[in-house]
């Protein structure tokens, strides 16, 4: 192929330095579309940078002026985002961009001064371990509610130990006697039957105390009070008074007043006499004397009694006004022993005895006694020193007795007297009380079966 011809028909030389007759020399200079073919694009890139003309001010000063900087492009305020191929179009999560993010166009900026981040304030003492120990974790704050509950739990536990420890200590101080009779006895029966005895023993009392209490100086020892506490397996307990002048057979001693059984053979013969005349098996025995009764009342701070009328009795050393009042131990003893000034005689006395015993049980279980440590200990020790129990009487039986007396005192039990046919019968041993044979037998039969639901008709 020949050289390109101009308008005169001759070949037109190519750019400087390009030999004529070559493809580069033959290419028209004005055809930009063929620059890539003839290599003109590479030649333009290799041309040296044109000489910059100094301004006149720089020449007049005799020193070269700083070369004029080309205008710096203003960077886009929004930083360029790296190319992140996304697979969202194909239903997958966006993929991570390859490599670090690209920098904005323009020359790199000089880094500014680095401001140090202020250190956090110290949490622990100077030179001490970091808060939270070696792990550095901040300590957990205990909630006030939990702390209060822990204190309350500790106090309740201490109170429980206190309430149990005092009776256990008192239990170890109680005197015991042999109350189990010889010979044939009634068989075991449902529930628990306790024989409560108040003796007229003056043992331990001085001459001045006997005079103060009005007990006299009668020799020997008799039962001034006899009660049967029936605690059935279910239902209400029953407190039954047995008149001390009841005319009954006494094993080996003929027929006599029931209180003479104690004088003839002590607790054993008394238990045997009660069992044979009632058909009830006695499971536990408790006895208290004059002096012990007074000490228990005084340990409680006295007992409140409401008297329907004034009482004045020289034999009992009583001079009490009508209405509710607090009786001391001495007055309480005279109140339960008084008989001559009562129109009902021995039957009226057994009613006052049940009333006093119920009041003692109620006051002993009151919050004023339980939460007062001095009163609680004084009462427990006074009761332990005042009573005597049978050899076979257990702690559980005494606890049942206390609970039953609490129910009776609050109206949750029955209080009654053995049905009587003649309260002043003439006998070889003097005036005595005769039981109503059929009614007494029916009442004791219900108790022996452990059923007290029908005892209300005997209540007085």
Automatic annotation (TrEMBL):
Q: Which family does it belong to?
A: Belongs to the LytR/CpsA/Psr (LCP) family.
Q: List all Pro residues biased stretches.
A: 67-83, 108-132
Q: Composition bias, kind Low complexity: at what positions?
A: 1-28, 55-66
What UniProt keywords apply to this chain's record, in alphabetical order? Membrane, Transmembrane, Transmembrane helix
Q: Which PANTHER family match?
A: POLYISOPRENYL-TEICHOIC ACID--PEPTIDOGLYCAN TEICHOIC ACID TRANSFERASE TAGU (PTHR33392:SF6)
Q: Which Gene3D superfamilies match?
A: LCP protein
Query: Could you tell me what this protein is called?
Result: Cell envelope-related transcriptional attenuator domain-containing protein
Query: Which residues fall in a compositionally biased region of kind Basic and acidic residues?
Result: 38-48
């Amino acid at each position: 192929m020949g050289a390109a011809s101009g308008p005169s028909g001759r070949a037109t030389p190519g750019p400087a330095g390009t030999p004529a007759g070559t493809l580069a020399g033959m290419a028209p200079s004005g055809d930009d579309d063929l620059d890539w073919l003839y290599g003109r694009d590479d030649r333009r890139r290799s041309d040296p940078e044109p000489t910059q003309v100094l301004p006149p001010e720089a020449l007049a000063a005799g020193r070269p002026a700083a070369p004029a900087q080309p205008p710096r492009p203003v960077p886009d305020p929004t930083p360029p985002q790296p190319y992140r191929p996304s697979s969202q179009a194909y239903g997958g999560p966006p993929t991570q961009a390859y490599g670090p993010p690209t920098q904005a166009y323009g020359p790199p900026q000089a880094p500014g001064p680095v401001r140090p981040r202020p250190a956090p304030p110290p949490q622990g003492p100077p030179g001490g371990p970091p808060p939270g120990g070696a792990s550095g974790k901040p300590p957990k704050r205990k909630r006030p509610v939990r702390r209060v509950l822990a204190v309350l739990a500790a106090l309740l536990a201490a109170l429980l130990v206190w309430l149990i420890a005092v009776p256990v200590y008192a239990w170890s101080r109680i005197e015991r006697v042999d109350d189990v009779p010889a010979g044939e006895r009634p068989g075991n029966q449902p529930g628990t039957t306790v024989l409560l005895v108040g003796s007229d023993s003056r043992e331990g009392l001085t001459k001045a105390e006997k005079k103060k209490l009005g007990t006299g100086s009668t020799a020997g020892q008799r039962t001034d009070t006899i009660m049967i506490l029936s605690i059935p397996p279910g239902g209400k307990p029953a407190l039954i008074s047995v008149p001390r002048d009841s005319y009954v057979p006494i094993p080996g001693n003929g027929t006599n007043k029931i209180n003479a059984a104690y004088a003839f053979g002590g607790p054993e013969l008394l238990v045997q006499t009660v069992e044979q005349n009632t058909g009830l098996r006695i499971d536990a025995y408790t006895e208290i004397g004059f002096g012990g009764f007074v000490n228990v009342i005084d340990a409680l701070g006295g007992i409140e009694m409401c008297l329907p009328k004034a009482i004045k009795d020289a034999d009992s050393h009583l001079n009490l006004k009508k209405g509710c009042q607090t009786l001391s131990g001495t007055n309480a003893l005279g109140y339960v022993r008084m008989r001559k000034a009562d129109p009902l005689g021995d039957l009226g006395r057994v009613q006052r005895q049940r009333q006093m015993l119920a009041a003692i049980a109620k006051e002993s279980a009151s919050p004023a006694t339980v939460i007062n440590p001095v009163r609680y200990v004084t009462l427990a020790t006074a009761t332990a020193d005042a009573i005597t129990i049978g050899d076979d009487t257990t702690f559980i039986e005494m606890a049942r007795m206390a609970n039953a007396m609490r129910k009776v005192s609050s109206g949750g039990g029955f209080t009654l007297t053995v049905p009587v046919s003649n309260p002043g019968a003439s006998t070889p041993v003097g005036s005595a009380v005769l039981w109503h044979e059929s009614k007494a037998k029916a009442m004791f039969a219900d108790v022996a079966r452990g059923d007290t639901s029908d005892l209300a008709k005997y209540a007085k």
